[in-house]
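Thread amino acids onto this structure.
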């Protein structure tokens, strides 16, 4: 008993000594989509949503170039299928760092490297060289004088933690100690994080009713329904906190008491098979909204209050090509067109802003519309519509790509913003629609959130939109341009 109390006391002291900092929320970007957006579109969405932290499952060159000079902090990954080669050759690791990190830094703000993902549970044949891979990547960073700026770790599944409740009794699967002990030594010596994937959805699904849904979703619980650690008498109101504290105690069981935890994946699916009744839009919304507020409140965990637990939401997009049950394809916050899958409940949540879509919407041509109709509407916008289309001239920022869709997108959106996003000003005789995807690319920055042309500020109301095909016709052509569902957008901010 006394040894147990000493262990608990050591954990409290050590974790309290970890340098306090504000937690942040980031997102994972998977690419198993049949229609994966172009990297510039992905970055436009990230910027429109003020997402400042992303984790990539690879080190895609085009994506890293698109992320350059954006202020977005990036976590890149050595994919699992490259672990064996990187872990068996120092020179291969050095080449990987040279091509995927040094070539992009500092323009692309790379902050961490994930060496694989859940290697011990998903690729056990590579377990024996995992620590070598970590060390070789670290050595390459040292050689490039980047080791103080970029951390190296490897995400593990929370399923590695056995007897996870009560947290104070938790320990790692001891069969993995020959790998875990040197791995934790590496993380401790380099000042890195234990990267942990936490999925209360799976804990709930596998508990056979033992875990209440509200406990998994961060929903308020009466005191008599809270889970109590019988050793520490600490109360837990959600699975997430209990799992993070379990990881701290599991590390302490191996005599490591000063390694902070970073959650590299957490989320909830919005759709599932018939045997997954709790994979719903409402539950996904509830979990991710509560998760974001919980992390950004800097409350830490019950056993480690105030200790930042920065977290990456799984994930940015629904991935329709993912194998397995329906739920595997439906963890995303957005669909491939950048439209929110559901409306996050983020009003009055500290640093997080919840804005109506009218504060962050754009106007673009509809898919599949006759290009002659789009060209006619473009001609009207740049003529009678009085849009300044000079940025579309050759040699100007928005000339490329030189096609009617791209040029019409700029002209339609500029008119829409100039008219104060008034109803009917994004129609153009039925060829245009409102979108939440920021079409800006490269140095071509589209008028967007907060833009109203000063010419129109003096008007009591925005003028009616004339027919773009007949500039002298009255405003009776107006169509309602209501964004479906009146969805709210969300912004994830890291101060």
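Threaded sequence (495 positions):
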């Amino acid at each position: 008993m006394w040894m147990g109390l000493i262990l608990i006391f050591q954990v409290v002291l050590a974790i309290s000594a970890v340098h306090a900092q504000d937690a942040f929320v980031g997102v994972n970007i998977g690419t198993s989509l049949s229609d994966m957006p172009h990297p510039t579109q992905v970055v436009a969405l990230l910027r429109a949503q003020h997402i400042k932290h992303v984790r990539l499952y690879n080190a895609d060159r085009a994506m890293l170039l698109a992320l350059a000079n954006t202020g977005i902090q990036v976590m890149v990954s050595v994919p699992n299928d490259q672990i064996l080669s990187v872990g068996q050759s120092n020179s291969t690791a050095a080449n990987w760092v040279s091509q995927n990190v040094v070539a992009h830094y500092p323009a692309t703000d790379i902050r961490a490297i994930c060496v694989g993902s859940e290697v011990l549970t998903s690729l056990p044949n590579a377990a024996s060289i995992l620590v070598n891979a970590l060390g070789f990547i670290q050595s390459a960073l040292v050689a490039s004088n980047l080791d103080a700026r970029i951390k190296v770790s490897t995400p593990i599944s929370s399923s590695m933690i056995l007897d996870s409740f009560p947290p104070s009794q938790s320990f790692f699967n001891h069969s993995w100690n020959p790998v875990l002990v040197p791995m934790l030594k590496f993380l401790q010596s380099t000042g890195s994080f234990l990267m942990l994937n936490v999925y209360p959805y799976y804990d709930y699904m596998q508990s056979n009713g033992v875990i209440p849904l509200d406990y998994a979703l961060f929903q308020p619980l009466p005191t008599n329904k809270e889970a109590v650690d019988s050793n520490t008498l600490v109360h837990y109101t959600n699975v997430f906190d209990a799992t993070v504290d379990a990881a701290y105690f599991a590390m302490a069981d191996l005599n490591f008491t000063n390694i902070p935890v970073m959650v590299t994946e957490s989320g909830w699916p919005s759709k599932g098979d018939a045997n997954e009744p709790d994979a719903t839009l409402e539950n996904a919304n509830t979990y991710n909204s509560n998760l974001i507020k919980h992390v950004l409140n800097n409350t830490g965990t019950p056993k480690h209050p105030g200790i930042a637990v920065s977290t990456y939401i799984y994930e940015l997009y629904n991935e329709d090509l993912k194998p397995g049950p329906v739920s595997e394809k439906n963890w995303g916050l957005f669909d491939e067109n950048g439209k929110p899958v559901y409306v996050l409940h983020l009003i009055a949540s500290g640093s997080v802003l919840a804005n109506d879509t009218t504060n962050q919407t754009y106007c673009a041509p509809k898919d599949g519309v006759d290009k002659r109709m789009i060209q006619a509407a473009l001609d009207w916008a740049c003529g009678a519509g009085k849009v300044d289309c000079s940025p579309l001239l050759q040699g100007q920022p928005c000339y490329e790509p030189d096609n009617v869709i791209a040029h019409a997108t700029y002209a339609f959106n500029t008119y829409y913003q100039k008219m104060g996003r008034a109803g009917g000003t994004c129609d153009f005789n039925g060829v245009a629609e409102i979108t939440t995807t920021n079409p800006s690319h490269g140095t071509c920055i589209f008028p967007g959130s907060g833009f109203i042309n000063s010419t129109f500020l003096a008007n009591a109301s925005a003028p009616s939109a004339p027919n773009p095909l007949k500039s002298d016709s009255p405003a009776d052509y107006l169509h309602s341009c209501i964004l479906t569902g009146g969805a709210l957008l969300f912004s994830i901010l890291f101060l």
